[in-house]
Fold Gallate dioxygenase.
Amino acid sequence: MAKIIGGLTSSHIPAVGNAIEQGLTQEPYWKRFFDGYAPAKAWLAENQPDVVIVVYNDHGLNFFLDKVPTFAIGCADRYENADEGWGLKPVAPFTGDAELSWHIAESLVEQEFDICTCQEIKVDHGFVNPLRALWGTSDPWPIKTIPLAVNTVQHPVPSAKRCLQLGHALGRAIESYPEDLKVVVLGTGGMSHQLQGERAGIINVEFDLDCMEKIINEPQWLTQFSNDEIMAQAGTEGIETIMWLVMRGALQPQVKLVHKHYHVPISNTGAGLLVLDNQ
């Protein structure tokens, strides 16, 4: 049977891809951010997962404001990266696992999550940059990937509670798959930031650190807040942190914290990283 061996979180700031591409990772501005990934990379190297399910939000590369599914899953054997207007050079295509994707989709529908299935989907910085930070830029990539997109762009967006419920359903789906696979779930996005309006540039360190601490073994804490309350605390784009709950819900109720790292400011965004061992 497939086994979820762990979960990770990572911010997915577009500037991360540029820093990697330009060789800036050890420059003073970026050094602490990238150094924080070393323990996560070591854990991944030691545990050698076969598949990573990347929970992220599409930024207009596939879904524009006229058509945005609440939840969508890639069901392909290959995912292409494309130019999305940030000046980021597209990376090598990612290998998918269509059989596992379809199993997850069918299981989620049986569990009353009406997920959108995508046999063709391009992946943007929200998907790509955390993988580059954790595995390095590769051609070919050393791990199979499955994109799981959550709408955090066009309101109404799902609640923190619904994302945690999706995680529970995702965990059941993965661990009912008959093939022996080691799976990790990667929740991306956040933390506190806002890109526009009078509150542009807001960073709420206290709220970010509370979220990180509670997500480890008390993830339901975040579900007490409405989306409006989360955005009031963390900024309009800070709502992305609800995607971490999809990852956390897929894991066991109690997990082992391997690594926690927080850094600010990076591109006016609170940047958080967790590694949770589910074994």
In short: The mean pLDDT is 96. The longest strand covers residues 256-266. Strands lie at 3-10, 51-56, 71-74, 78-79, 94-95, 116-118, 144-150, 182-188, 256-266, 269-277.
